[in-house]
Amino acid sequence: MPAAEASGGPALLLVADRVRTLDARRPEARAVLVDSGRVRWVGKDPSDAPAGARRIDLAGTVLQPAFVDAHVHLTATGLLLGGLDLSVCRSVEDCLASVAAIADVTPGRVIWGSGWDDLAYPEGRPPTAEELARAAGGRPVLLTRADGHSAVIDRISLETAPLARAEGVERDSDGHPTGLLRREAAHVARRWFSAELPQAQLREARALVARHAASLGIASVHEMNGPDQMGAEDFDAWRQGHWPIEVVPYWGATDLDFVAARGLRQVGGALLLDGTLGSHTAALEEDYADTAGAGHLYEADTDLVAFVSEATRQRVQVGLHCIGDRAVRQAVEILEAVAGRCGLAAVHAARHRLEHCALVATPLIPRLAALGVVASVQPTFDIMWGRRGGLYQRRLGAQRAERMNPLGPLVDAGVCLAFGSDVTATTLDPWAAIHAAVHHHRPAFRLDPETALEAATVGGRRAARQDAVGRIAPGQRADLAAFEIDGDHAEACVLTVVGGQVVHGPPVPAAAGRAQGARA
Ligand SMILES: [Zn+2]
User: Fold this and answer.
1) Beta-carbon contacts of residue 263 (< 8 Å; ≥ 6 apart)
2) Can you give the CATH number for the domain in which 181 is found?
3) Which of 141, 234, 387, 517 is the most core-located residue (most Cβ within 10 A)?
């Protein structure tokens, strides 16, 4: 049973400098009483609280609804936390030195890294299979690109992995595979590698990432798994395990039996209508600026309409991954066709979601709102790729790049936003997402801090159709986090509560009435 379904521990009175409730009826308070997993009382004066609770003093902090990360790939993130982070590397040479260093200190392990970015390297390319084999001394190496959609592997793995029929194996002018794998080939390799990973390495990775999320004030994550991600065994490990945080699992396939057998009411997420801009696989209305072609759609309209209609009839929510404007248009047209078949009310009740929803033609925005979809967006991508000369400009040209991630216009049109990190494409860091949304490179696309906080907390609850969680108000599930705040800049998370249980922070006082300092 996930922590969030637990009935909660002892009654707790949490007293902070300030409580941001996100509840319009009582936006500001100082104290919150948590009992049996729920918020029981919210007030300005702790002495007004019902007596008998154990008190945790959170001096110098702001208490708020805990964060939701609405788009994560957990096990890969955990493997990275315990593995090799290449996001700091500035060249192929750097990457290879990092591989050699980790090979030395982690004997017997598969070298699992991510975060390389050929666009930032003077060599203008990723490491090759030969280079990786040499650097790792013959150990298996899989390094995922920063966008998560391409990978490079070492020469021995390249010859052993079942890639013969996979699409996306890059070859040099002589027809030899280079080690770079895109699309299907990257997925095949990742699956094959994860099957090679020792179970202990996987278990450690899962525990590590769940603890890490809790330590950041994240109470709930939406795990985007699927047959092309880590696969069914990993999906079930997340679904059945005991974690300090709540894990809402999404299975990225058009397979309703798979989710029904597991009692789930959501499917998709990593159900790809297109790929990514970084890998030139996002589907665009017009050609890329830096290569011929406009990407392509992965799924036929008729198949998608049939699938989403059936899901809608079963009240199962569907998440559709769409990045390019052509893919976003496909998603809108499909959902409109489904509304024609099943009724708009049924589409609203299913509350389907679009993952990324990154390049959106302006006329589509009100149509998204009318469909009642949630846009599961990653504001941090703007920081990474939205600046002058960045990935968006290179791939799309300056004019189209200015249309990326229209957060403000989506909110203004009434589209519910949920923030996610899409780790391992970025890092788990909810404050970074808020900061990126508030400081979007295009002022017209910015959110105000309050709206951004809403999208990073309550928005994720709406995205998971959890309407009794998210705000600090009596009756709501107690998922809370306290942060040391310096001006508008959040620092350390000092307390995370999930379903009334303290999962990160000070020990709960042993007896009622005894004060406990969080920062002692
Ligand atoms: Zn993703």
Assistant:
1) none
2) 3.10.310.70
3) 141
Which tens digit of pLDDT belongs to each residue from 99-148?
999 999 887 788 999 899 999 999 999 999 999 999 999 999 999 998 87
- How far is ligand 1, taken at its centre, from the CA of residue 375, in Å? 13
Q: How far is the CA of 9 from the centre of ligand 1 (A)?
A: 34
Q: How many angstroms is it from 94 CA to the middle of ligand 1?
A: 26
CA of residue 230 to ligand 1 center, whole Å: 12
Same domain flag for 383 and 318:
yes
519 within some domain = no
Residues 454 and 486 in one domain: no
CA of 56 relative to ligand 1 center, distance in Å = 37
Residue 183's pLDDT is 77
Cα 232 to ligand 1 centre (Å): 17
420 touches 437 (CB < 8 A): no
Q: Give the torsion sign (CA, 173, 177, 178, 184).
A: positive
Record the pTM.
Answer: 0.87
Question: For a pLDDT cut of 90, what percent of the chain falls above it?
Answer: 80
Distance from residue 510's CA to the centre of ligand 1 (Å): 42
pLDDT number for residue 193: 87
> Both 42 and 118 in a single domain?
no
In 3-state terms, what secondary structure has residue 231?
A: coil
381: containing domain:
252-463
Domain membership flag for residue 513: no
- Specify the pLDDT at position 489: 65
d(CA 151, CA 12): 47
Sequence-ordered list of residues with C-beta below 8 angstroms from that of 4, at least 6 positions apart, any chain: 219, 220, 245, 246, 469, 477, 479, 498, 499
Q: Are residues 138 and 259 in the same domain?
A: no
Cα distances from 96 to residues 92, 114, 124, 295, 507, in angstroms, run 6, 13, 15, 31, 43
Q: Report CA(199)–ligand 1 centroid distance (Å).
A: 23
From the number of C-beta atoms within 10 Å of its C-beta (0-12, 13-18, 19+), residue 24 rates as exposed
Same domain, 154 and 34: no
CATH number at residue 315: 3.20.20.140
3-state secondary structure labels for all residues of 483-500: EEEECCEEEEEEEEEECC
Measured in angstroms, how far is the CA atom of residue 60 from the centroid of ligand 1?
A: 36
Centroid of ligand 1 to alpha carbon of 61 (angstroms): 32
Q: How many angstroms separate the alpha carbon of residue 354 from the centre of ligand 1? A: 11
What is the C-alpha to C-alpha distance for residues 282 and 493, in angstroms, rounded to an integer?
36
Contact 272, 321 (CB under 8 A): yes
Residues 290, 329 within the same domain: yes
Q: pLDDT at position 4, please?
A: 44
Q: What is the pLDDT of residue 487?
A: 61
Cα 420 to ligand 1 centre (Å)? 9
pLDDT at residue 278 above 90?
Answer: no
Taking the centre of ligand 1 as the mean of its atom positions, its distance from the CA of residue 72, in whole angstroms, is 6
